[in-house]
Amino acid sequence: xxxxxxxxxxxxxxxxxxxPKLLALRHDGVMSQYVRFDxxxxxxxTGINFLFCLCIFYINRKYFRAPVNxxxxxxxxxxxxxxxxxxxxxxxxxxxxxxxLFTTIGLLPGKGIGIKxxxxxxxxxxxxxxxxxxxxxxxxxxxxxxxxxAHLKAELGLLKGQLQPHFFFNALSSLSGVVRxxxxxxxxxxxxxxxxxxxxxxxxxxxxxxxxxELNAVQSYVALLKMRxxxxxxxxxxxxxxxxxxxxxxxxxxxxxxxxxxxxxxxVSRPLQIRIGVKDGWLLIENNLQPVTFPEPGTGIGLxxxxxxxxxxxxxxxxxxxxxxKFIVKLPxx
Length: 334
Description:
Layout: H1 3-18, H2 31-34, H3 39-60, H4 73-101, H5 113-181, H6 183-200, E1 208-210, H7 211-229, E2 233-238, E3 247-249, H8 253-263, E4 272-279, E5 282-288, H9 302-313, E6 319-323, E7 326-332
C-alpha cells in the first residue's frame, strides 16, 4: 500500500465521521436542538481526525498481517500499546484545545472526539485486515498462475516433441524416394526440408505466430509435396492482406496438410485440392475427400495433438467437419 492509500482512506474516514454535524444546519431539524453548528469547529475536528488516522495507519502498516488465530505477542502487543497511547494522547490534547477555542457544551468531553478516534481506529483495523486478505489472495492467485503456466509450457513442450519426430520421419521416408527417382532434385528437396525443419524448431515465448509467418513456412512443405506428386497436389490460399496479422499456434498448418496428403488419393487425374481462407475469425483448411483404402502408417497424433495445443494456447478447440465430399478443419484465430 502506498502513501496515497493512507491519505485517501484517512480523508474518507474523517469526513464520514464528521458528516452528521452538517445536519445541524437545518434549524428545524432534530440535530440542531442538541448541536450548534460551527464551521470552524467542524474543520478543526475533521483535520485532527485526519491527522489521527494518518498516525494510526503509519503505526499499523507493518503489523496484524498474520492469520487471525495467530497472535504474535511481541509485535502485535506492542502495536496495540502504541495505538492505545496515541488514542489517549490525541483525545487529551484535542479536548484541551477545544475547550480553549470552542464552546464546551456537550454530553461528552470534546463533543465526543474520543469516540470518533476510537471508531476511526476500528475502521482502520478492519480496512487493513481486508487489504491484507486481498493481498494474500492475490499472491496465491499469482503463484497458482505461475504454476499453471509452467505446467502448460511443459505439456506444450511434450506435444511439440511428439510432432517434430513424426514430421521428420515422414520427410526422410519421402526423401529416400526422391533420391531414387531424381537425384538432381534431391538437393532442392533437402534445401526445402531444412527450411521446414528450421521453422519447426523455432522458439517463441508464447508459441503463437502470425498467419503470414505460418503461410510462408508452409510453402516449403508444399514444395516438397509438389515434387513428390507433381500436378496431383494443388493448394489455393485466399487470405487478405489485413488478415495476415492474426495469430495462431506455431506449426498448425503443416500437420493438416500432411494429414490430407496421407489419407487421400493423389494423382494427376484425381488431384488433392486444398483451400485455405479466413472467415469470421476462423482459419478454414478444406480439401476434397477421396480416401485411400490403406493410408500411410503414422502415429495417429496429428489432429489430436493440434487440438490439445489449441486448448492450451487459445482456450478453444478446433472444429472438424465432413460434408459433401469435403473435409474441413476450422482453426480459431487470435
